[in-house]
Every structure is written in structure tokens, then in C-alpha cells.
Design brief:
CATH topology of one domain: Phage tail protein beta-alpha-beta fold
Largest sheet: 6 strands, mixed
Number of strands: 12
CATH class of one domain: Alpha Beta
Strand content: 25-35%
Helix content: 25-40%
Radius of gyration: 41 Å
Order of helices and strands: HHEEHEEHEEHEEHEEHEE
Shape: elongated
Low-confidence stretches: 1-50, 173-177
Distance between the termini: 110 Å
Structural class: alpha+beta
């Protein structure tokens, strides 16, 4: 019996020892891992040191809506750099005269439309435009010229180019027959009369082909006319003493007029006329 009691006692001690060992093992397994050095992690995760580029000595903002307007603040900035940035924002080529290349400008203005803004940037400015009579949009600038004072005007084909040109051939089957009333009555009876005086255009047409009217306008203005359509639309109109732009807008929505604005002299003149039907997009 004594041996039995000792046996049970020894068995109980072994069981207790096993339980304590298991509890110690579980405690060691659940012990949290040592804390990571956050300073070291942050140091390793820190991005590469990137230095910002040199700050431009001017601030230029161009807004296209609701109308084109420009804001500029420049303090002894290179005209070349300002023009380059303006060209990029307007998506329009800008040409500088030789003396303007390294010129420094100091100017400040806010939300001015194109032409007043350009005039503050340069004493001599030319702008070539394209006017689409059917778009309803403002004239599109094709090229801007910041020229030197004594450089002269850019050539007409500096940005407005084209190889097509139509010719006007006139004739009179009644030569030698003088109508009653002399020259005055003869002029009144002409089915097409175009005059250009004091930078104003007058067109009087009685059922005349539009292409013929445009060729006559081109002859009067001394500019090339490119007829790219066989459309025989007739014109029956009487337009008196209006700027060229207003006249062609009234004649057809399928005309593109190219003009040059001399901002120094506040003058505009036509460079080229193109008459073409709109391109039909296949469904």
C-alpha cells in the first residue's frame, strides 16, 4: 500500500512538471518580437532628394475660356524665354527680331485679351490670323511676330502658305457698244461690281457665281484666291463699305480668310482667300 501511495504521488509530481513546461513553452512562443528601429526604416524608405529646377523670373498664365486672356508678371526676364513659354501655351509660333532675342523685359498685367497683352510686351507686333466664316469662333492666331523697330514687316507667306491660286479672266461680248447715259449708266448695269476704298469693301452682285465674286475681290485687294470647289452657288447681294472680314462672312460660311494685324499701326490687311466646301465625314 505504501508503494502504491508513493507511485501515485510521483505520478502527480510528473504531471505538474509537464504542465509547467508546456505553459513556459507557450509563453515563450507568444512573446512579441523585438521592436524594429523606426528611425532606420524611415531612413531607408526616404525618397531620393530631388532638387526643384530653377525658378523662372516670370509668371505667365493663359486662359482660353470664356475668351482668350493672358496674365504676365516679369522682372528682368529674357524676352526669348517669355516668348517661348507663351508660344507653348498658345500653341502658336512666335518669331523674334535679332535685337529682341536677349532683351530683358519688366512688365505686369492681368487678364488682358491677346492684342493688348502683346502690345505691352513689344513696341512692334504683327499677328497673322485665320478666319473661318462658318465656325462662329474668334479669329485663330497662326503666327506672332515680335519684331525690332526698324526690321520691317514679315513676308506675307511667313506662316500663311498655299500653292493653289485661281485666275480671273474677264471679257465683254458687247465691247464697242456704248449704252445710253454714258459711263455712269454702264456701271449701274454691271452685274458684278467690287470696289475697295479707305480699307472698306463694297460688293454688288446680281446672280453671280460666288467663285467669280471672290476672284474679283481678290483682284481688287491684290491677294491670291484659291477656289477648291466646283460649287456654282450664285450670289445676289449688295454690301456697301464694310471691312473685308464682315463682307466675306455675309457671302458664305465656307470661306477662310487670312489676315495680318499690324498692332503698331492699328491696321489689318487681307493676305489670302480660300473657298472650299466642308469635308463630309462618313457615317
Amino acid at each position: 500500500m505504501k508503494r502504491t501511495v508513493l507511485f501515485h504521488y510521483a505520478k502527480r509530481i510528473s504531471l505538474i512538471a509537464l504542465l509547467c513546461f508546456a505553459a513556459f513553452t507557450l509563453s515563450v512562443a507568444q512573446k512579441p518580437a523585438p521592436a524594429t528601429d523606426t528611425k532606420q526604416v524611415n531612413k531607408e524608405a526616404k525618397p531620393a532628394d530631388t532638387k526643384p529646377g530653377p525658378k523662372l523670373p516670370f509668371t505667365l498664365t493663359v486662359k482660353m475660356r470664356p475668351i482668350l486672356n493672358i496674365s504676365l508678371k516679369a522682372e528682368k526676364a529674357k524676352m526669348y524665354e517669355v516668348s517661348q513659354e507663351l508660344s507653348k501655351k498658345l500653341k502658336t509660333p512666335i518669331f523674334l527680331g535679332p535685337e529682341r532675342q536677349n532683351e530683358l523685359i519688366t512688365v505686369e498685367f492681368s487678364e488682358l485679351t491677346l492684342e493688348p497683352a502683346l502690345q505691352l510686351m513689344s513696341p512692334t507686333v504683327y499677328v497673322d490670323y485665320e478666319i473661318d466664316t462658318g465656325s462662329g469662333e474668334q479669329p485663330k492666331p497662326l503666327g506672332i511676330f515680335f519684331y525690332d523697330a526698324n526690321q520691317g514687316e514679315p513676308p506675307p507667306t511667313a506662316v500663311v502658305t498655299g500653292t493653289g491660286q485661281s485666275m480671273l479672266i474677264e471679257g465683254n461680248t458687247e465691247d464697242g457698244v456704248e449704252p445710253e447715259g454714258g459711263e455712269a449708266k454702264k456701271d449701274e448695269e454691271q452685274p458684278l461690281r467690287v470696289t475697295y476704298e479707305n480699307k472698306l469693301l463694297t460688293v454688288k452682285a446680281k446672280k453671280q457665281p460666288l467663285s467669280l465674286v471672290l476672284l474679283k475681290i481678290g483682284e481688287e485687294l491684290g491677294i491670291p484666291v484659291d477656289i477648291q470647289t466646283q460649287n456654282l452657288t450664285e450670289v445676289d447681294a449688295e454690301i456697301s463699305k464694310l471691312p473685308v472680314e464682315d463682307v466675306v462672312r455675309q457671302l458664305s460660311p465656307h470661306i477662310r480668310l487670312f489676315v495680318r494685324a499690324d498692332l503698331t499701326r492699328a491696321e489689318k490687311r487681307a493676305l489670302r482667300l480660300v473657298y472650299a466646301e466642308p469635308i463630309k465625314v462618313a457615317q
